[in-house]
Write a structure and sequence with these properties.
There is one protein chain. The protein contains 21 helices and ten strands. The chain is α+β, with helices and mostly antiparallel strands. It folds into four domains: about 1-160, Four Helix Bundle (Hemerythrin (Met), subunit A) (Up-down Bundle); about 165-400, no CATH class; about 400-515 and about 620-630, no CATH class; about 515-620. The strands form two sheets. Strands 2, 3, 4, 5, 6 and 7 form a six-stranded antiparallel sheet that branches. A four-stranded antiparallel sheet has the order 1-10-9-8. The termini are far apart.
Length: about 650
């Protein structure tokens, strides 16, 4: 009965979305306040109905209701409760319900917190959001019913993919989806602005917090997935340029450009058409990622390779959404005024260069991801585009981007003195040279790695120097500097944290990719291996019975000279239902490096294959990204976002396409 309630709630949610998508936008066009007011209760009702459906599906997983086909295919009675719950979105059908739930939650959030929005704009935004929901609700109900019954019901299920039975993968998809779907708000605001014919600083102030929320979630989601791959797959890496990884990285790059472009609209009333286009492209890339994952074009541990009919439906939805929005942009964008003028050497100019580099970098990833798929579809030939391609194309684009990131915040709006700014970055330049020389002295080449370490030092010191310059640190009494720091907008503190975090993460990525040491050998119990100044001794291997798996757990003691460092317990698990092995790496971090051990299969002589990695500065990757997310959260707490956008000026005369600002 409960699954039927959930199914019926999804149907009702589709009907409510149809009302929300049509009545308010007609009311906005005709100036009917009562019709526009329908948007807010409809958005809240849609969220309530989708929540009921999601809870009904969760209940079916928790109680192991094997009359529901989705539960049979993705659960098992012996599975721990956490993975029964995460099994709800660990499959195609359930993940679509989560997707629509997050979509409805963002729409409801605008309905609740968007009281400062002009009623016509709010009505149009919520209507556009509803039409996105209509597409995905129809997709779920017509092709991917999560509540489909099966008779007779089996005694037990087929279990969830063992690789997904991990805390990292339990929380990775919701965060990733919140990022993907969160960019739908920027898209909805962009389409509403094009329909209304009005883009101004107030609009940018409304768009920025929603974009920042999505960016924070997507950053955290990508990082959580990377961290899972690092410790779960046992290969010692954190990024492989897998097409599904790229599917989430592309909207992140475009969303980062959107965030910076919206600042120019808000501060200088410029780049308005460009910002609208970025909002459209960012969400479009989220949809393209959905198509890649769910179309059956590729198979991955985190891809839902399904029948082509579903892929065709998503392709149609993608064409309508992206094609329709770009056509609307082509028609309406010429009416958007260009806004304030600025010199090439200015903060606006630096942000434009930032945007161009991010978009080109995103285009590089797009080409490397989709070209093999297009080639196979056209000719049947299969090629693989991997790290060498991205190292030669994507990485060089990042070099000028990192260089500009330290310079840009020092530049004045409208026109700036570049020579003067570079003079204030002498300390950052010195730090870059010292970091590069230190890398050469400690580790040696390659040249690009040395350059990257220098750039990381340049960025972090330049970022901190800009913050110190704002508060006149060392140029005024300490009490005055502290008062200035307290008086700075929180978005300024957030920018400093985010940029410094990127520098820290960049140093970690560079060191891990360039100076990692690996050793693979067969070890008998009691054998020792020396590597990177540490001694690894295999003490014992025990067989353990888990809740739904069996495990060989090794005990490896690490020492440095006569000093005990750590005792690791890497595992090799076997899940009997799916007859699938998984790896659980043993990791000890020193803050400057990870000591990483993986246990493999035994041989006939009683030895065990043991793989050992020395991962320099890998902890800095996670610390740096945490700083970036924290910077986004600090920026969101800025009082300007809490107080809302400035009031708009009076509406333009009838017949005008764009308001004068």
């Amino acid at each position: 009965m409960i699954p039927e309630i959930g199914h019926f709630a999804l149907i009702l949610a589709l009907m409510v979305a149809l009302v929300q998508g049509s009545v308010p936008i007609i009311g906005a066009a005709q100036g009917r306040t009562a019709w526009m007011d329908v948007a807010r209760p409809a958005a809240l009702l849609q969220l309530a109905l989708v929540t009921i459906a999601f809870l009904a599906l969760t209940w079916a997983f928790v109680v192991s209701d094997f009359t529901v086909l989705n539960v049979v295919q993705n659960s098992h009675t012996a599975k721990p409760l956490l993975y029964k719950i995460s099994g709800v979105w660990g499959n195609h059908e359930g993940s679509m319900v989560l997707w629509v739930l997050i979509l409805a939650a963002f729409g409801a959030a605008v309905a609740v917190f968007g009281g400062n929005l002009p009623p016509p704009l709010r009505a149009r935004v919520l209507s556009v959001q509803a039409w996105i929901a209509i597409g995905f609700l129809a997709f779920s109900l017509l092709t991917s019913n999560p509540f489909e019954r099966i008779f007779p019901a089996p005694l037990n299920g087929r279990d969830l993919n063992p690789l997904l039975q991990d805390p990292g993968l339990a929380f990775h998809p919701p965060m990733l989806y919140a990022g993907y779907v969160g960019f739908s708000m920027a898209f909805s605001f962009a389409i509403a602005a094009l329909i209304e014919g009005r883009v101004d600083p107030a609009w940018a102030r409304w768009v920025r917090p929603w974009t920042l929320v999505a960016w924070c979630f997507l950053t955290a989601g990508i990082t959580l997935g990377s961290w899972w791959a690092y410790y779960e797959l046992g290969w010692g890496g954190w990024w492989f340029w897998d097409p599904v990884e790229n599917a989430s990285f592309m909207p992140w790059l475009m969303g980062t450009a959107l965030l910076h472009s919206a600042i120019v609209v808000e501060k200088r009333d410029a780049l308005k058409a460009w910002t609208i286009l970025l909002a459209i492209l960012t969400f479009s890339l989220s949809l393209i990622g959905t198509f890649i994952v769910r179309s059956g074009l590729l198979t991955s541990v985190h891809a839902f390779a399904t029948d082509p009919e579903r892929g065709l439906f998503i392709l149609l939805l993608l064409c309508v959404t992206i094609g329709g929005s770009l056509i609307l942009f082509a028609i309406r964008a010429p009416a958007v005024q260009a806004g304030g003028l600025f010199a090439p050497v200015s903060r606006e100019g630096a942000l434009v260069l930032n945007n161009l580099l991010l978009v080109v970098a995103c285009g590089t990833v797009f080409l490397g991801t989709l070209y093999p798929l297009f080639l196979e579809a056209a000719t049947g030939d299969k090629i693989s585009v991997g790290p060498p391609f991205y190292n030669k194309t994507f990485v060089p684009i990042m070099v000028p981007l990192i260089a500009v990131m330290a310079i840009g915040p020092f530049l004045a709006w409208k026109r700036a003195d570049l020579a003067g700014v570079l003079g204030r970055l002498k300390l950052a330049f010195a730090a870059a040279v010292l970091a590069a020389l230190g890398a050469v002295a400690l580790e040696g080449g390659p040249v690009l790695a040395v350059l990257a370490m220098g750039l990381a030092a340049w960025l972090i010191v330049g970022t901190l120097a800009e913050w110190a310059d704002r508060i006149k640190l060392f140029r005024a009494p300490l009490g005055d500097s502290l008062r200035r720091a307290r008086g700075l907008p929180r978005s300024a503190h957030g920018m400093t944290l985010a940029h410094a975090g990127l520098a820290v993460a960049m140093a970690g990525m560079t060191a891990a990719a360039s100076w990692k040491v690996e050793s693979v050998q067969v070890m008998q119990l009691g054998d020792s291996v020396e590597m990177a100044g540490y001694t690894y001794r295999l003490d014992r291997v025990d067989q353990v019975q888990g809740p739904n798996y069996t495990s060989d757990i090794a005990q490896v003691t690490i020492s440095r000279g006569d000093r005990h460092v750590a005792r690791l317990t890497p595992e090799k698990r076997l899940y009997p239902v799916q007859q699938m092995p998984t790896t659980e790496a043993g990791i000890h971090t020193t803050g400057l490096a990870d000591l990483y051990v993986v246990i493999g299969d035994p041989d006939e002589a009683g030895g065990w294959t043991v793989r050992i990695f020395h991962e320099p500065l890998v902890p800095w990757i996670w610390a740096g990204v945490l700083m970036m997310v924290l910077g986004g959260i600090v920026s969101l707490s800025d009082r300007r976002f809490r107080l809302g956008a400035p009031a708009r000026r009076a509406k333009a005369p009838a017949g005008a396409t764009v308001a004068q600002t």
